[in-house]
Amino acid sequence: MDRERTGDLIYNAPMIWRPDLTVAAVVQRDDRFLVVEEHIRDKVLFNQPAGHVEDRESVIDAVVRETLEETAWHFVPQHLLGLYLWRNEANGQTTLRVAICGEVTTHDPHRRLDRGIIEAHWLRREELVAHRARLRSPLVLRCIDDYLAGIRHELSALSHIQASTVARTA
After folding, report:
1. Quick one: what percent of the chain has pLDDT higher than 70?
2. CA 170/CA 163 separation, integer angstroms
């Protein structure tokens, strides 16, 4: 438990719960979805192109960056698919995933992929189901199923408020 010292007093401060904020790109071409095969803690798993939002980065910028870094595809966001809060019971970590669907345009096959990424693949949902034990989390299929169900929200639902913007409008 965290402890703070105030003068000569020591008291226990409550732990603050914060989920990891991540983004994921859901991209379908024909009947296949763009996924990455990656090394995670001595395992080889499948996931959508995904990663953490960096400090001062917008969610949209993060999903574009992560998709490029992990697949070498240039991602064009079109819709917010959804927000997914998931707790990994194995390690206690909680993730808030912002899933965004869109399309990819150009591909740079010579681009070096992020550390840990083995390869990008285009796989059918059935292929991912067949490899269910190798999915990074249940979020992989949930996002695909929501996409196939036609769930879409406007990207304008995502706002990135910067201090400079607030100062100008105040």
Report:
1. 88
2. 11
pLDDT, tens digit, for every residue of 106-138? 999 999 999 999 999 999 999 999 999 999 999
CA distances from 51 to 9, 24, 40, 109, 155 (A): 41, 7, 13, 21, 19
The per-residue pLDDT for range 37-67, each reduced to its tens digit, is 999 989 999 999 999 999 999 999 999 999 9
Name the CATH topology of 19-155.
Answer: Nucleoside Triphosphate Pyrophosphohydrolase (3.90.79)
Number of C-alpha atoms within 13 angstroms, CB side, residue 71? 31
C-alpha 44 chain-centroid distance = 18
Pairing of strands 3-6, 43-47: unpaired
Q: What is the pLDDT of residue 58?
A: 97
Residue 138: phi and psi, rounded to 5, are -70, -10
**What does the alpha-carbon distance between residue 86 and residue 93 come to, in Å, rounded to a whole number?**
8
Query: Nearest to residue 156, comparing CAs of 64, 67, 60?
Result: 60
Q: Where are the domains of the chain?
A: 19-155
d(CA 39, CA 70): 12
Tokens representing 76 are 């064009």
pLDDT at 2: 45
